[in-house]
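Our consortium's second objective concerns turning raw sequence data into structural hypotheses that experimental partners can test. To show how far this objective has progressed, the report includes one record in full. It was chosen at random from the queue rather than selected for favorable results. The single chain below, 291 residues long, was entered without modification.
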Amino acid sequence: MIELSSAVVAGGFAVAVAVVGMPHGGLDHLFGRAVFEPRSGRRWLATFGLFYLGIAALVLAGWFVSPALTVVLFFLISAVHFGDDLSVPQPARSVCGGLVIWVPLLFRPTEVAGLLAWVIPSGDVVRVSDGIASAEPLLWAVAAFFVGWLPFAPGVGVVVRNIVFALLLAVVPTLVGFAVYFCGWHSTRELAELARRANPTNPWLGLRKVALLAAPMAGLAVVATAVAAWWFANGRGLQPVVVQAVFLGLSAVAVPHILLHAVARRSGADPFAAEARAGGSGQFGSERGAA
């Protein structure tokens, strides 16, 4: 197993999430406008805020009131979401999307139990370990399905990618594996897709537009996470404070983010069309014309 110092892991993890992970959700206000403005008109912001912040508050409350149920639901929702853009049928899509969850649970259970005990307010590592142990038969069933599915996967690239991720997530520290998967794979792919949608003829200009539009919301999320880390500190070490603040923050925004994008996908809502209607396209209109 590969091990790194806790300070290096915590610092690298926080930076990766702040620089790459948060920005891919920084356009949710534009998705919110595209989804809710046709339904609510000028009241779209209030409707979007109630939807987004209401769900975020419910998720945060879940960590305090029913952490076991919250963890399970968050893991399931995340696995489905991470597999959304994979061109394979269900249930293989969610199993592959959930590699970042079930592989560490199966092969690094002690480490994952420690991390979850940090995340859960007043978490008990023994109870978390017992919960992971009780899920072990199901985790092995998922692993067996994954191995059995690989020979039928559509293409060598899909097979290689999933094997590489499975091996990586089994041997590197869980936070490192999560950062590589979430930031290096999932978030970068979503940012690339947003850049393509922002400027189909010149994705680099599209990426610049996405970065500028996402910066305020992503920056606000980073500041909120930093404040939460300060609040949770209470004399604890750097790693547990960072892990708790980042994962509570990620879970709180991830669930409404996932649901919002699912609605936008179904309705065909275009966040950049909404941004243009709001008068935000002037700066970039000349770039598109020049591209």
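The partners drew two points from this record. The chain has one domain: 6-276. DSSP finds 15 helices and no strands in the chain. Both points have been shared with the crystallography group to help prioritize constructs.
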